[in-house]
Amino acid sequence: MPATEPTERTAPVITFENVVKRFGDHTVLDHLNFEVRKGERVTLIGPSGSGKTTILRLVMTLEDLTDGFIYINGEPFTYEMRNGRRVERRPKDVAKVATKIGMVFQQFNLFPNMTVLENIIEAPVHVLGKSKGEAVTRAKELLDLVGLADKVDAHPSRLSGGQQQRVAIARALAMDPEILLLDEVTSALDPELVGEVLGVLRNIAENTDITMLIVTHEMQFAQEVSHRVLMFDQGRIIEDAEPSVMFTNPQEKRTKDFLQAVL
Ligand code: ADP
């Protein structure tokens, strides 16, 4: 299925509305507002500590919001307003929405005691209730997609970092996510293994309509796959532009300085 170009009229899939996140006294995200539309691939860039990973972890409900709302497909995700009061949604409702969201981490986080196949079918069988046969068929298709069809029965410890990360990508895709969150997925890899993982992600970006929110230091990759790039500094978006503009003609001095340091 060819990827379609998201436009202004495409529905928002992720909406951040006045999102505040504090750890103790430290305000990490300061009234953050942005939208990601269906099929859009948005990359977050900015200095270390500017809050990028926290954004992904909030979308994945690995962190609680301090204030504000996150909407998934227009629905308030973890909180709703009742009689003017903020009420936490039932965990069951949140869990249902969360199955539409997949995340790949810097550290591959595979289950070490399971084979590659078992890693991939675990959630489709136990969370989505797929039959084992159906889950295995899909897992094999996905292993083919990430170039690891011959590793079905291998244990993660037998694989290189790049191979483990490709299994982690297959595992995330096995849940048929609408949204894929990629958190510095090549940062823990030896340099010679980065290319194979980025190659798989490029292929997925080109051939699916999955909405992606990406944190990466690989600026070339960001430029190639993103529809839009958001530059963060101190918990705020300071520039929001298409990659062709962000990487060649940024408007903000802080963006210029950051890109000069990393490119
Ligand atoms: P980035 O991804 O842009 O490098 P992060 O979102 O990882 O930034 O972190 C933003 C800030 O939040 C950092 O100052 C970090 O130390 C702080 N932070 C992140 N997670 C926690 C936590 N669990 N407890 C306390 N501080 C945290």
UniProtKB/TrEMBL annotation:
<keyword id="KW-0472">Membrane</keyword>
<dbReference type="InterPro" id="IPR027417">
    <property type="entry name" value="P-loop_NTPase"/>
</dbReference>
<comment type="similarity">
    <text>Belongs to the ABC transporter superfamily.</text>
</comment>
<dbReference type="InterPro" id="IPR030679">
    <property type="entry name" value="ABC_ATPase_HisP-typ"/>
</dbReference>
<keyword id="KW-0813">Transport</keyword>
<dbReference type="Pfam" id="PF00005">
    <property type="entry name" value="ABC_tran"/>
</dbReference>
<dbReference type="InterPro" id="IPR003593">
    <property type="entry name" value="AAA+_ATPase"/>
</dbReference>
<dbReference type="InterPro" id="IPR003439">
    <property type="entry name" value="ABC_transporter-like_ATP-bd"/>
</dbReference>
<keyword id="KW-0547">Nucleotide-binding</keyword>
<protein>
    <submittedName>
        <fullName>Ectoine/hydroxyectoine ABC transporter ATP-binding protein EhuA</fullName>
    </submittedName>
</protein>
<dbReference type="InterPro" id="IPR014343">
    <property type="entry name" value="Ectoine_EhuA"/>
</dbReference>
<feature type="domain" description="ABC transporter">
    <location>
        <begin position="14"/>
        <end position="259"/>
    </location>
</feature>
<keyword id="KW-0067">ATP-binding</keyword>
<dbReference type="GO" id="GO:0005524">
    <property type="term" value="F:ATP binding"/>
</dbReference>
<keyword id="KW-1003">Cell membrane</keyword>
<dbReference type="InterPro" id="IPR050086">
    <property type="entry name" value="MetN_ABC_transporter-like"/>
</dbReference>
<dbReference type="InterPro" id="IPR017871">
    <property type="entry name" value="ABC_transporter-like_CS"/>
</dbReference>
<keyword id="KW-0029">Amino-acid transport</keyword>
